[in-house]
Structures are given as structure tokens and as C-alpha cells.
Amino acid sequence: MEVFILLAFGLTTVAIVAFFLKPYWDWRCSCSKPLESQISRTSFQCSPGELVPAPWKAPEVVLSVVVPAYNEEYRLPQMLDETLAYLESRGGATSFSYEVIVVDDGSSDGTYAAALSTSRDASLQHGEVRIIKLLVNRGKGFAVRAGMLAARGQLLLMADADGATSIRDLERLERALGPKEDAPQIAFGSRHHLREEALTKRAWYRNVLMVGFHFAVWILVGGSVKDTQCGFKLFKANAAKQIFASLHLYRWAFDIEVLILARILGKSVTEVPVTWVEMPGSKLNLLTGAVTMLRDMALVQVLYAVGIWQPSVL
């Protein structure tokens, strides 16, 4: 009987350790491969090494919009239509140029085809849509990383495929970064100002998870940014390239590592209120998502503290 108890205890311990270290092994398995080898196809022609340009290469457009998409066949077209219409309107009166980079995170539906069809139907004069499809689903953080490293803009915007935040809020983030040398280099879109309204509308268990998550972020990371998880963030090119070249977390908690890396690299962050509408069809399971995000937040702090993870040198 004691042997079975010890065996069960040992197997349980191994399972817990394996679960805790999973983000580390995911990173180890991917960092040994070039990013290009993890991409199945793109909508544009590129020569070897062009997909991830050198970090010091001069920007070719004013703005890059990176859209991670996983099984977004139905929500993505509307988001792209609204985004492209807005960006085209900005290009009419100025020298504004842009690119929208959709990164299909190994979707099992028609996400790639939907993005391709939308881009072909749009009449674009000031920008283009570039689509990257990953071989397998790697996580939102990995998809954003792939798009950011391939981006060619002076400013790089991360925007969710559901369109929960209006693309017009980009102007708020641009003003927050500003032209001055001492201006912030990263702007986090924030829904914190909507917190009280959200608490009254959401189910009690969602509120418990949200409050608990924010408390865990405050304990593990600090409270300078109230909303780390809003999928609407703007980066100056140099900050984006350094941070996403160094990213290790590939799932939902990658925003936390972005904030940690910004601090390590000396990139200042500002938080900007944005509009936000809760869209149906979220891919995040609240319970499992909360557990894995807590694990990832704890692990990233430990691995940076002991020096196993460090920013990449560009």
C-alpha cells in the first residue's frame, strides 16, 4: 500500500512540476528554430531573411497593425473592414502609410482565407495587408511576436481580431507617445476606467476572477499599469523590436512579460483609457486561463530573477 501511495505522490509531483515548467519548455523548443521555419505560408513574397528584418533596418511605413487571429473566420473580416477604412481615410490628406499584418495562429477554420479575401476586396491606396499563417497553434503571444518582428513601421500597434476596441482610439495612444525624445515609448490601452460598470454587469464569478487576477498582478508585477490585458497596445519601433525579440511567454500572460521587459530595458510605459465593447466568441476559458496565467506570472518572475531568462541583445 505504501508503494502505491509513494508512486501516486511521485507522479503527482512530476505532473505539477511539468505543468509549472511548460512555458519554459515551449520556449526552449521554439527558440532553437528560426521563426521562418514555424510559418506555413504567407500572402506575400519574401526572400530568405526578409520576413524578420534586422532590428536596425529603417522603417518603411508609418504604422504597422499586428492582428493575432485564432479561429476568427467570422469576426476578423468586420474588424479588418473597419480598420482598413479608417487607415485609408488617414492616408488621403497626409503622407501616412501603413501595413496590417494578420498572423493566423494555426487556425483550424477559414481564418487565413477570410483575411486574404478581405484584403483582396479592399481598394487600398496607402497601405497593404500581409498575412502570415503559423504551422500550428502556438498562442497569442507567439503570434504577436511573429507579427511584431516582421513589421516595418515606425509605430507598431497590437490590435485584437474581435475589434473590441475601436481602431480610432489609435489616435489617443499616438498622442500619449508624442514626438518628444523623453516621451513614453509604449502605450497600453486600458479599460480600467470601465471597471465599475463591468463589475455591475458581469456574473459574480467573473468579477471574483477579475479582481483576483488584478491582485495577483499587483503582487507579482506591481501596480503602475492597472490593465495589462487589454489587446490594444502601441509601441515605438525600437521598443517593440527589443521587447518581442526577447519574449518567452507565448500564451495569454505574455502582456505581463512585455511589461517586465519594458522595465528591464528602460522603456517607459503609459496607460491610456480606450473605448471597449465586450464581444462574444472569446477563446479564453476563464478558469483554466486564470490558472495558467497565474502560473506564467510566477514562472516569469522566477526565471528572470535567477537569470535563466534575459533580454536578447540586438
UniProtKB/TrEMBL annotation:
Subcellular localization: Endoplasmic reticulum membrane
Q: Name one Pfam family in it.
A: Glycos_transf_2
Gene3D superfamilies, per this entry? Answer: Spore Coat Polysaccharide Biosynthesis Protein SpsA, Chain A
SUPFAM superfamilies from the xrefs?
Nucleotide-diphospho-sugar transferases (SSF53448)
Boundaries of each Glycosyltransferase 2-like domain copy?
64-244
> Looking at the keywords, is Lyase present?
no
Give the record's keywords alphabetically.
Answer: Endoplasmic reticulum, Glycosyltransferase, Membrane, Signal-anchor, Transferase, Transmembrane, Transmembrane helix
What EC number(s) would the UniProt record show?
2.4.1.117
TM stretches of this protein: 6-25, 203-221
The record describes its membrane topology as: Single-pass membrane protein
Q: Which CDD domains match?
A: DPG_synthase (cd04188)
Extract the InterPro entries matched here: DPG_synthase, Glyco_trans_2-like, Nucleotide-diphossugar_trans
Key word Glycosyltransferase present in the record?
Answer: yes
Q: What pathway is it annotated to?
A: Protein modification; protein glycosylation
Reaction equation(s) it catalyzes: a di-trans,poly-cis-dolichyl phosphate + UDP-alpha-D-glucose = a di-trans,poly-cis-dolichyl beta-D-glucosyl phosphate + UDP
Q: Which family does it belong to?
A: Belongs to the glycosyltransferase 2 family.
Give the PANTHER family listed for this entry: DOLICHYL-PHOSPHATE BETA-GLUCOSYLTRANSFERASE, GLYCOSYL TRANSFERASE
Q: What is this protein called?
A: dolichyl-phosphate beta-glucosyltransferase
